[in-house]
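The authors assume throughout that readers already know how a fold can be written as discrete tokens. A single example would do more here than another paragraph of explanation. An entry of this sort, consisting of the sequence and the corresponding backbone structure tokens, reads as follows:
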Amino acid sequence: MQQPLAYRMRPRNISEVVGQQHLVGDGKIINRMVTAKMLSSMILYGPPGTGKTSIASAIAGSTKYAFRILNAATDTKKDLQIVAEEAKMSGTVVLLLDEIHRLDKTKQDFLLPHLESGRIVLIGATTENPYLTILPAIRSRTQIFEVKPLSEADMQMAIARALADKERGLGDFDVDLDQEAQQQLIYATNGDLRSALNGLELAVRSTNPSEDGRIHITLPIIEETVQRKAITADKDGDGHYNVISALQKSIRGSDVDAALHYLSRLIEAGDLPIIARRLQVIAYEDVGVANPAVAARTVTAIQAALQLGFPEARIPLANAVIELALSPKSNAAITAVDAAISDVKKGATGDVPDHLKDAHYSGAKKLGHGVDYVYPHGYPGDWVPQQYLPDKLMGANYFKPAGNSKVERAYKEQYDKLKKAQRDGLKGN
């Protein structure tokens, strides 16, 4: 049986891993583990197809340890016992345990002593947040690493490598992959390299060669293969980015009809994840404090859309877009936080005032930490003048709302009132 291209192209060592340079690059933590041959159990979490299995395979290949793959949900305790017996015989086994968030207590209890002894190096893979879903006993015995979505450049490199590799890839085929077809393959699979490579192989093997023996992969072939239409077939391959940009700018400019037009183009392309992400950005970046309720309703609409899927997802999405476009606008929040971040980057931080420092430990009072803190809830209006900013930043003013709505005007009035009361109160002290 022919194994899928994504399986065949799994990295044989750390140097062949696509992306994830924050983990496997020179001097980075997993690279250092492999180089020193001091492996510890770990959990890799991130979106599907971003390289969790590949990293595990590369670790095993680089260290020459036996490598086994099991699934926490479907494989049994007996399967784990077989791996444990192999570890006793060979010394060390690298075990990739997929869907580790679904590991039950029986399997966990069996695994723990083997993790403690180092016979089994566990690499757990999950798409879920391990801090919320992984059993504490496992979590405390592992290091947790986030696997990030692959960049477009990472995807391009992996595709080029697969097309050139005669041993494991498609190098025996004479393939012409149009640029716009490659763009759509990357875009439609949304950073999922497994889907991209397997889609590429299907396109190549199902396309008849021309008279000169070359296999020409065009945009329509990729659209058919991945079952997603391109938004536009522009020569630069960035049509989808243009449409996304146009959607945000139309909503920002309060043009409902234009916003619905660009939304429809994204819907027709089947790109629910990017619509969901962009609308949430718009809700908080462009509407923000002018209408905070619309941000919450947008998130609810997106949750509904993701649960429904297309075609029904278009209905809550349309509701969100209409409300966002017609809502008053404010960029005060993003402007404020960016100004604060800018100060931090420039080193304008300063020491936390002593009265705000943590006082929940023995000896804090001797250091003066928390001693003079005044509890606001003990005062009328649950407020009392007190220094919160470091000395270096006294008087800093990041939040500058324009007052484009009743809500934002109320925030502005409250902000100005509290700022003045703070200044006057601190002067009086």
